[in-house]
Design a protein that fits this description.
This protein is an alpha+beta fold. The protein is 39% helix and 21% strand. Strands 1, 2, 3, 4, 5 and 6 form a six-stranded antiparallel β-sheet that branches. A hairpin with a 6-residue loop joins strand 1 and strand 2.
């Protein structure tokens, strides 16, 4: 009788209690979230949900085209029966690779937002080419231009495109002979060309 009760208790534990790992992904912006649950008969008792933000998601929000994750997909990556045996499902492999976008700080984000204010066509073009059509060549060029904003030296030269007294300073002025055309305008026009 004791053996039967022990077998039933063990079976109950392994069939009724599990630790599950679900992965959620947005195919549009690359956003990801892991949903880690300890469950009893598929009812979550404890849940953790670490988020993984991508550079594309941050840039889209700063451009004014934040992704609402319309096609968010979810799948069951692993299930640990009785909290210890991984089976049904037990999908191995790399799910996402963490990127270092520490260079994209608040200074670069504010420069991008300023650029969008001066050229209102950037959000529409960004949505059309990157979000909808996944034009990764355009995205690569866009990111390289953003990195250029990070390394561009700040100059306190009046912006010729500014109206009024011309005293407004721009961080996008080019050094050297092309000073008459602000770096911000060259950046925007080069994005339109790609």
């Amino acid at each position: 009788m004791g053996f039967l009760l022990a077998t039933l208790a063990l079976g109950f534990w392994f069939l009724g209690v599990d630790r599950s790992w679900f992965v959620e992904k947005c195919p549009t912006c690359g956003y990801g979230r892991d949903v880690l649950q300890v469950r009893a008969f598929t009812i979550p008792l404890n849940e953790r949900t670490p988020d993984y933000t991508t550079l594309l998601q941050k840039v889209a929000a700063d451009v004014g085209a934040a992704c609402s994750h319309p096609g968010l997909m979810r799948y069951h990556k692993r299930r640990y029966w009785g909290l210890c045996i991984c089976a049904c499902p037990c999908i191995n492999g790399t799910d996402r690779i963490a990127h270092d976008f520490s260079w994209y700080d608040e200074a670069v984000a504010s420069e991008l937002r300023a650029l969008v204010r001066t050229d209102p066509s950037i959000p529409d073009q960004f949505v059309e080419r990157v979000i909808k059509n996944h034009d990764w060549d355009f995205w690569t060029t866009f990111v390289e231009r953003l990195r250029g904003l990070r390394s561009a030296p700040a100059q306190q030269t009046p912006n010729p495109a500014a109206s009024g007294n011309g005293a407004r300073a721009s961080l996008f002025h080019a050094a050297g002979p092309r000073r008459a055309v602000p770096e911000q305008q060259r950046w925007a026009s080069s994005i339109h060309e790609n």
